[in-house]
């Protein structure tokens, strides 16, 4: 009760003062001019309070949005690092030079995830470098040929939320490449034009296996897109004839 009175004291004073003026006017103890002056005084107290309450609501909503986005970012790629560390353990004895390269690329990926991922937006070139390192690590991880093609046609001045495309790339390797013994492919295309960022990734998969339910990663991606881009994005997912296609369009905001 005390906290309520402290928070809304100005509003309560304004309401009480306004009611007293109305009662006085009804009883004809005050002139009309004095009543009008009192109304202006009440508005002078009430309107700033109302504006401040609206500001607080939007500030709280924004803080909650940022906190949820940070939580969602922290869920990206945990099992990937475990897999790479296991591979690294085996490479240290069998191929020390390859293990050194893997450690350097893995450290670059972790550095990006720790520092750059804290930002709301990063320049698109940094995200491209991160994706390239991630793809190269997967090339080193699998002991089979993978047809990976990453076409890039981007211009300066474009920014994107960090760790956004990686979920689609991770799914292509996890649900496609990992289950195929041969002729596995992952084709990526990233372009910018007309203040839009267009990302497309296509991969094949073993369609003889039972269909998998949508995982946490895609739900994570959809939620982050909704929070950060609202109605300024388009995400299309489709699969047919043993191929999976994901297309993501973003406004450069």
Automatic annotation (TrEMBL):
Transmembrane residue ranges: 34-58
Keywords (A to Z) from UniProt: Kinase, Membrane, Transferase, Transmembrane, Transmembrane helix
One Pfam family hit: His_kinase
GO cellular component: membrane
GO MF annotation terms: phosphorelay sensor kinase activity
Record-annotated Signal transduction histidine kinase internal region domain positions: 67-145
InterPro entries: Bact_2-comp_sensor_kinase, HATPase_C_sf, Sig_transdc_His_kin_internal
Protein name, as recorded: Histidine kinase
Organism: Niastella populi
Lineage: Bacteria, Pseudomonadati, Bacteroidota, Chitinophagia, Chitinophagales
């Amino acid at each position: 009760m005390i906290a309520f009175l402290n928070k809304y004291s100005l509003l309560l004073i304004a309401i009480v003062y306004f009611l007293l003026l109305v009662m006085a006017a009804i009883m004809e103890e005050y002139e009309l001019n004095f009543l009008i002056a009192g109304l202006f005084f009440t508005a002078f107290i009430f309107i700033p309070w109302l504006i401040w309450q609206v500001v607080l609501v939007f500030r709280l909503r924004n803080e909650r949005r940022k906190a949820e986005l940070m939580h969602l970012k922290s869920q990206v790629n945990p099992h990937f690092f475990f897999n790479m560390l296991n591979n690294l353990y085996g490479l240290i004895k069998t191929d020390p030079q390859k293990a050194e390269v893997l450690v350097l690329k893995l450290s670059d990926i972790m550095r990006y995830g720790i520092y750059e991922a804290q930002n709301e937006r990063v320049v698109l070139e940094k995200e491209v470098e991160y994706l390239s390192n991630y793809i190269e690590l997967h090339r080193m991880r699998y002991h089979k040929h993978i047809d990976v093609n990453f076409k890039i046609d981007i211009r300066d001045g474009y920014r994107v939320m960090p760790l956004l495309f990686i979920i689609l790339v991770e799914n292509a390797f996890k649900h496609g490449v990992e289950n195929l013994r041969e002729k596995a492919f992952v084709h990526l295309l990233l372009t910018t034009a007309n203040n839009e960022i267009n990302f497309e990734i296509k991969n094949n998969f073993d369609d003889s296996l039972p269909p998998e339910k949508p995982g946490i990663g895609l739900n994570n991606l959809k939620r982050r897109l909704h929070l950060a881009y609202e109605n300024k994005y388009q995400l299309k997912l489709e699969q047919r004839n043993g191929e999976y296609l994901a297309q993501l369009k973003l406004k450069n905001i």
